[in-house]
Amino acid sequence: MAGETNLATMRFRTGELFDQVARKLPDKIHGATMEGRFQFLASGDPLDRIFSLQSGKVKLTRTSSMGRDHVLEILGEGDVLGLESLAGENVWFYTATSLEPAEIQWIRVEDMRKYLASNPNLEVQFLRLFGAQTQQRYERTMDLRDLDVPGRVAAVLLLLMRRFGEIGEAGVVLPRGLTQSELAQMVGSSRETTNKVLADFMARGWIQQQTRVITILDAERLIRRAS
């Protein structure tokens, strides 16, 4: 829980830093609106832009050597993509797809580097935040690997609840844009196995599921199952 709180704080701070650059370089900032599901980055493409998500949700996916897709993370407002370019990376290692109507802003890496060259303290802040976020995401991945499938399902549901949950009549409603396959890809299991776990959680009264909408009814039980 504390780790997720720290990660949320770092996301907010990174978004603030991007906005600070945007205010200084308004003529270098570009924008785009995606009306629904739209892939705007592909793994292997040149990493020549840094993006800031202004609204909506975006999934990051990567395809394994076995041809299986894995959802690495779901991003939301304030998240920044492409900071690895400041650490020397020059290609995207994931694919980014909007899950719903979304707005993004972006700046060319070369323009960002020129600005940061005259503002080294800002560059240090970006790199520190990027490094800390990368470390926490790695630790979260390692924690998931130590759990069985029901534990991973519980952990992913809690992750989505803490980041995107909205209070509803019965409980906390999770984002509606995710498909069953995408949820399974976050868990690292098959869709069939993930659905069986969800059905078990429903039978226990921990969650409610209706037409692709999952509502958390008993977060404490999920926390115990994920520990």
Which helices and strands, and how do they pair?
Blueprint: H1 2-24, E1 30-34, E2 38-41, E3 49-55, E4 58-63, E5 69-75, E6 80-81, E7 95-98, E8 102-108, H2 109-117, H3 120-145, H4 149-164, E9 166-167, E10 172-173, H5 180-187, H6 191-203, E11 207-210, E12 213-216, H7 219-226
Antiparallel strand pairs: 1-8, 2-7, 3-6, 3-8, 4-5, 4-7, 9-10, 10-12, 11-12
Helix pairs in contact: 1-3, 4-5, 4-7, 5-6
**Mean pLDDT value:** 89
Put simply, the count of helices is 7
The CATH superfamily of the largest domain turns out to be Jelly Rolls
CATH class category name of the largest domain:
Mainly Beta
Question: What is the structural class?
Answer: alpha+beta
End-to-end Cα distance: 11 Å
Instruction: Please give the number of β-strands.
Output: 12
The global form is elongated
- Return Rg in Å: 18 Å
- Low-confidence region ranges: none
Largest sheet: 4 strands, antiparallel
Architecture (CATH level 2) name of the largest domain: Sandwich
Q: How many distinct folded domains?
A: 2
Assign the CATH topology of the largest domain.
Jelly Rolls
Strand arrangement across the biggest beta sheet: 1-8-3-6
Which series of helices and strands comes N to C? HEEEEEEEEHHHEEHHEEH
Strand content: 15-25%
- The percent of residues in helical segments reads 40-55%
Keywords: DNA-binding, Transcription, Transcription regulation
GO molecular function: DNA binding; DNA-binding transcription factor activity
Organism: Mobiluncus porci
Protein name: Crp/Fnr family transcriptional regulator
